[in-house]
Amino acid sequence: MKNALVSLALCFAAVPGSAVATPGEVSEGGTLQQIPMQGLTGGSKLLGDYRGKPLIINVWASYCPPCLAEMSSLERLSKRYGKQFNVIGVSIDDYPDRAQAFLVQAKTSFPHFIDRRLALENMLGADRIPLTVLVDADGKILRKVYGAKGWDSPETVEAIGKAFGLRM
Questions:
Q1: Helices marked H in 12-147 — which ranges?
Q2: Domain containing residue 119: CATH number
Q3: CA distances from 51 to 15, 47, 108, 134, 167 (A)
Q4: Where in this chain does the record put each Thioredoxin domain (predicted)?
Q5: 20-34, 97-111, 151-165: lowest mean pLDDT where?
Q6: Stretch among 100-104, 108-112, 114-118 having the lowest mean pLDDT
Q7: d(CA 124, CA 140)
Q8: 6, part of any domain
Q9: What are the residues whose beta carbons fall under 8 Å from the beta carbon of 10, sequence distance 6 or more?
């Protein structure tokens, strides 16, 4: 596991992490809390419903061009490896209609939620977006990646597989 985290850190070395900065933020190595999530593309869920399988959480907003730019690579990643881990999106928009318009452009099939109360935004430390958080099957944060990325590039897929302990 330690080597996997080193590989993941090297893959994302150009994207600096963040110190604990938002109220109630869970830092890397910490365990996410059980929190309700309001559905944008389906029903509402509890974050804990995703335990038991690794999870990639992408935090975005409709006013963020880099967020839209990376959505297609997250969609490809989700479609190709969705049996090995889950991918979800979390909008920090105040207005669901703006978030819905963004999703029409993004054309993704993985679940999206909206965080109008800032609970997820603060817990994940989304003081900059896009933010993508890799979470193990027990809800522990392995890595936070700030900024847009090509999530389906061979080196990123390899780093994700190593972090999650999966063959990809």
A1: 65-81, 96-106, 119-124
A2: 3.40.30.10
A3: 27, 8, 22, 12, 19
A4: 26-166
A5: 20-34
A6: 114-118
A7: 11
A8: no
A9: 159
